[in-house]
């Protein structure tokens, strides 16, 4: 629950802001631990129209977190105190939502909270992986190095994901354009032409009847078709939010020809990179496996790594636990086994991460090279078939006159 408060600090300066707590008493105690004397506090139940912020506007991009981590690492290396680091960055970042989060983190630090615990209060911005990395840095006294690792890791992840997403922009644009053109032709052009054909009384070919029927469907029942599509989209979205639905769609992505191979390499790259980064940072093996599963981004691999974590807890080697799952390629299992035997698991995982990042990059380039001509052919065939279905009967009609 969110509370608005007014308080005085140690220098008798008035402070205002918000604090999140389960109850008002806990909120007051939290503020007092920060060294504030509370003068008034009330639930933040109302907001003016101008101050209303929609949830989708409150977001922090991966790029923002990369830059933030790099800045934190630099400031820690310069021996700047943690409290001052977050106060300074809160006043400098352009993203207002991130600035608000950093201010709350600084307030928690002033109240005596560890950095990892303060960050953990904002899971939408700082993932479980991020928080545990920071916690390991606090325990080892290597916070500046840890934030450097985080910035490097997030930078690599951002680069791979950005390339994969950009590769899908062109085909998505072509597909959307295709459906817009087809819809306009079926609703604006075909009805006028079909009227001429029907009035002529000649026999209409089956493929032309199908096109005319589809046109009539969109013209007469277009609103219902749109409603059905919206309902279907909402149903799919809601299904993805459930564990079983998310697993189904994630598994479907992996089983889709070629696309599944790209996703598999992307997830394996992320697993290797996550795991290597956490091991190098001093996070225990079992905890590294579990956290990697929670941030990999696939319900299929999340389930696999959860089972691997249980097996490792029971005394199994990581390579043996991974070997039980067909989704993990043999080369990855063999290299991890070598890493376990030589004590160079972190270096081996880094090598695997680099290998799979190159594979993702190559697959994306190949996919783009294949998609461009295929989309052009697909668009040309669709429009060509539609025009042929209309023009051939008109040509026959003109020839019979």
Walk me through the topology.
Elements: E1 2-8, E2 14-20, H1 24-33, E3 37-43, H2 62-77, H3 82-92, H4 96-110, H5 115-120, H6 128-140, H7 143-200, H8 206-241, H9 243-255, H10 259-280, H11 285-295, H12 299-313, H13 318-322, H14 330-342, H15 345-400
3D structure, described in words:
The protein has 401 residues and is mainly alpha-helical. The chain folds into three domains: 2-43; 60-155, Type II secretion system (T2SS), domain F (Receptor-associated Protein, Up-down Bundle), CATH 1.20.81.30; 160-401, Receptor-associated Protein, CATH 1.20.81.30. 75% of the residues lie in helices and 5% in strands. The protein contains 15 helices and three strands. The chain has helices spanning 24-33, 62-77, 82-92, 96-110, 115-120, 128-140, 143-200, 206-241, 243-255, 259-280, 285-295, 299-313, 318-322, 330-342, 345-400; strands spanning 2-8, 14-20, 37-43. A three-stranded antiparallel β-sheet has the order 2-1-3, covered by helices on one side. The protein is extended, with a radius of gyration of 29 Å.
